[in-house]
Amino acid sequence: MTEEAEDRLVSALLHDLAHPGRARERRDRRVDAGLRAIDERLGRRARRRPVAAALAAAAAAAVVLALVFDATATDATAAAERLLEVAREDAARRYEVTIQRNAVRAPIGRFRLDLSGDDVMRMEGLDGRFEGLVLGRDGDVFYAVPPRQGAPALVTESRDGFERWLGGREMSLERLVVADIVSSLLDDYDLEASGGGDGARLVATRTSGPRTRPRTVDVTYRERDGVIVRLSLTFGRDLPPRAPRQVRFDLLGEEPRDRDWFSVDVNVPADRQRVGLRR
Asked: Do 113 and 97 touch, CB atoms closer than 8 A?
């Protein structure tokens, strides 16, 4: 191989670093070919110019290390994309959600969360001040049903208004819908994948985005089908005392549910007054 051809090959390897979406097989072939070419070229240069050969060896090592780290990042991104695809499936899954507040003495809240895809959900408080509270989403309609008999139910098509209402109770849809959580990992986080089988893991560390988002996200999932079995969100301690410190999702089961099970009419009693929110 001529020096010009070898230079083109090394340039192509460097170009691949900027295009992590290339097929892994193509990248691996180029790495193998590049290493062979570099090895041959260094042998010739070492005889002619020892110092230049040493510098070239260091550059080659940097390229190889960068490619290894790029392969790891690509695998982690692929894992996150698969988790998102599975989370958006029209398949009902039930999680127990535990919310630990930032303040040491703040109560822990537990909820039972049912999801099917990313546009329907039903969440019921199991203890504390949220016991019996039902929150839900039915497509473009959001609702909240207080546990007190006869209390009005909130029903609105305004997601922003519903978010503001939840925010006053230190909650957010972004921290409740698994698909929304996983989606955010693809934009604002560094990802690291490890393990396999029923204990495959994806650990995400926030690098950008608002500080109200989790600082770290630790996902445990089944490798065979991409179903998340545990999801742990950890927030910074610089948030208000009643803001969440940690939110944890534990898979309880997967059982088929008709979409109507999540609907407003099923979950809001007919004798409850319905009040809305301004957009």
From this structure: yes
